[in-house]
Design a protein that fits this description.
Helix content is 39%, strand content 19%. The chain is an alpha/beta fold. The protein is elongated. It starts with 7 loop residues before the first strand and ends in an 11-residue tail after the last helix.
């Protein structure tokens, strides 16, 4: 039995092979009560039958928490207001789910009088960091058990875990290993490992869950109108929906047109490069629409300042610093800028592409009369003469200093 003294522990539990084995292993090692906790963040049918499975494996009970609306409202939407993208492609679907899961895990641990929490993340990935940084910020008094990093965890891989499950009569389906691993929530489905570890190999087309192949999408485009208020999407085609329902509807619409597939090799926080394949149809479409309304409503310098921080914000989410003060401070700046991002974007969906074809806003900064090439619109073009001369002052100074001025010509 492990040296640590633990009375009661809350385990983040999915019911799969890893967390089922971990649940029983913790009971064997620590002799403590284990509460299995599963967060519903939109993984569909995967939560069916979990209570019976958890109790049969040794849990005292299962807590199934429906976090879909909280996840969408308090985590996904703030991230979307920042237009956060990691390394140019990844819309952070798994990354943003971990802090909401860990937050509720802390709440359950305190409500149940537990003195420890546990997760099934491996020592090679990002999730271990995301879980444990959230624990550190929200409940530093709780002990953390991370079996994959422990010296007394003797399982080398799947074969050892299956043998242990058979020995302990753990009620899990023992099947051949899938050719990849999958994580699903409201925002996306991610795929990695297995056959995808060869970065040259194209994924199987039947792997995807949320999107059709672009070449199999309808031959006619579909137009979608998305309304935004203070940077948040609030309605699709005139129908107001709750945050979670809106993302679900966006997934349905964009998915049938093959929107949002991404195949990338990314840099994990722990220093490993990893190939990930993602499908994020709804949030891809919503992010395009958000950018379109911002084009009308955000001041240039505010937009450029915010955009200069997008990669840093995305890193904070990816690395697991959602509850860190730097992310909260940056969020305050972003949300201040989003107050006037109100309006409607019209998006054209066609065979994998989401194209902005219209945008409107009651508080638009766009003035057709000023922008027009056909009329003056109150803009005196001669004012640009002095503006350009001032802007070029430092460039002319560089030319003089480098001796690049042609002699004999007058310099004005």
């Amino acid at each position: 039995m492990a040296a640590e003294k633990i009375k009661k522990l809350v385990l983040a539990y999915s019911g799969g092979l890893d967390t089922s084995v971990i649940l029983r292993w913790i009971k064997d090692q620590f002799g403590c009560e284990v509460i299995a906790y599963c967060a519903d963040v939109g993984q569909a049918e995967e939560t069916v039958g979990l209570e019976q499975k958890a109790i049969a494996t040794g849990a005292s009970k299962l807590v199934l928490a429906d976090l879909r609306e909280e996840f969408a409202r308090d985590f996904v939407f703030p991230m979307m207001r920042a237009n956060a993208v990691y390394e140019g492609y990844y819309l952070l679907g798994t990354s943003i789910a971990r802090p909401v899961i860990a937050k509720r895990q802390v709440g359950i641990a305190r409500a149940e009088g537990a003195d420890a929490v546990a997760h099934g993340a491996t020592g090679k990935g990002n999730d271990q960091v995301r879980f444990e940084l959230t624990f550190a910020r929200l409940a530093p008094e709780l002990k953390i058990i991370a079996p994959w990093r422990r010296a007394d965890w003797t399982f080398a891989g799947r074969a050892d875990m299956i043998a242990y499950a058979n020995q302990k009569k753990i009620p899990i389906p023992v099947t051949a290993e899938k050719p990849y691993s999958m994580d699903r929530n409201l925002v996306h489905v991610s795929y990695e490992g297995g056959i995808l570890e060869d970065p040259w190999r194209e994924p199987y087309n039947d792997m995807f869950r949320l999107t059709v192949a672009p070449e199999s999408a309808p031959d006619r485009p579909e137009y979608v109108e998305i309304e935004y208020a203070a940077g948040n999407p609030i309605a699709i085609n005139g129908e107001r929906l709750s945050p979670a329902k809106l993302i679900e509807r966006a997934n349905e619409i964009a998915g049938r047109h093959g929107i949002g597939r991404v195949d990338m090799v990314e840099n994990r926080y722990v220093g490993i490069k990893s190939r990930g394949v993602y499908e994020t149809p709804g949030v891809t479409m919503l992010t395009h629409g958000h950018r379109a309304v911002e084009q009308l409503t955000l001041d240039r310098e505010v937009m450029h300042l915010r955009d200069s921080m997008v990669s840093r914000y995305a890193e904070m989410v990816y690395y697991g610093y959602w509850f860190a003060p730097e992310r909260e401070a940056l969020q305050a700046l972003i949300d201040t800028a989003q107050r006037d991002v109100n309006g409607v974007a019209r998006v054209k969906l066609y065979k994998g592409a989401a194209t902005i074809v219209g945008r409107k806003s009651a508080n638009s900064l766009y003035d057709p009369a000023v922008a027009s090439f056909e009329e003056a619109g109150g803009y005196d073009q001669s004012d640009a003469d002095g503006f350009i001369r001032l802007a070029g002052t430092r460039l002319r100074a560089i030319a003089r200093a480098r001796g690049e001025v042609v002699k004999g010509r007058a310099e004005k």
